[in-house]
Every structure is written in structure tokens, then in C-alpha cells.
Specification:
Layout lengths: L4 E8 L4 H14 L3 E4 L3 E2 L6 E9 L12 E6 L2 H6 L4 E10 L6 H4 L9 H7 L3 E5 L1 H8 L5 H10 L6 H11 L5 H12 L1
Helix pairs in contact: 1-6, 1-7, 5-6, 5-8, 6-8
Length: 190
Amino acid sequence: MNKTTNIMIVGVGGQGTLLASKTLGKLLLSEGYDVKVSEVHGMSQRGGSVVTYVRFGEKVYSPIIDKGEADYIVSFEKLEAARWLEYLRPDGRIITNLHETDPMPVITGAMEYPQQLIEKMEALGAEIDAIDALALAEEAGSSKAVNLVLMGRLSKYFDISEDAWMKAIEACVPPKFLELNKKAFALGKK
């Protein structure tokens, strides 16, 4: 594979975007790819917008993804998917949680949460795979497992064995949360 694949993981601080990118990076390294994972951009404190870039291929020279280059945007929240939409390739795909996390202007009453975001992004040509990742995470045992639900959904688009995904999860998730996170991954993949 000479092509570099670009994945953006976007969300709000405290949602688990770092664990998702760490797991993905570990998986791709184990598959023999050259992998670059960026630092988080934005506010890493709970509530601020965050983004992590994961790039992999035969040889990757930079961790940064420019506008129009993301093959996948994995979004923990619909508004974050819309915020980063201009980074998606014309043939790219957004995997998003349907959950809405109110940003500060909505919390203070200065603005309303935008309506029909999925429809608006699709009208702009985006391929969207939207799931209720929060409900699936809660079914797995914890609302904090949204990140592994979304990784499970992302796994559907890669020809990488489930065993390899499980080994990456085992390497990144503390043992006491392992079964819950494996279940969350499986629910997301389904």
C-alpha cells in the first residue's frame, strides 16, 4: 500500500479521543505500517474541542492532515463532525456518534444547538455512518466506552483481523475495563 490513509478523531475533551487514537496507532503499527499520530490540538480540558490525526501507510512523513485530505473523520459528537467537515476528502467517510454535547455558547443560552446536522453534511456530499454510540457504550456497561464503540465501527472499513484489534485494545485498556471495552467494540462493529 503506497497510499497514506488519513484519519481524524474529533470530539470534546474528556470523551476518550486519546485512547481511541492510541489504540488505533498501536493496531496499525502491529500491522507493519509506518504510523504518525499527532498531539491533541485544541483544549484538552473537559469540554473543549479536540482533534487527533492518525496517518498510516508504507512511509508517512508528517502527522498533520490538511483540508480535503481526511479519508475518515471519526467524531464523538455531531457538531464536531460538522466543524471538521472541510478536512474530509470528496470520497471520504464520517463515522459519527449521534450524541449532542452542548458547547459553551449553547450552555450559556447565547446560541442554539444546530439542527439537522447529519442531513446538512450529507447535502454537502459527505458519506456518513451515524450511530448512537452512547447507547451502545451504555449497553456494554459504561458511557465512557463510546471511544471503543466508534473504533468498532471504524474497523468495518479496514481489512484487519479482529484478533489484531483485540490485541491493540488489550495493550491500551487497563485490565479491569478490558471486557467492557471489548464488548463496546463488538457492539460498534455490529
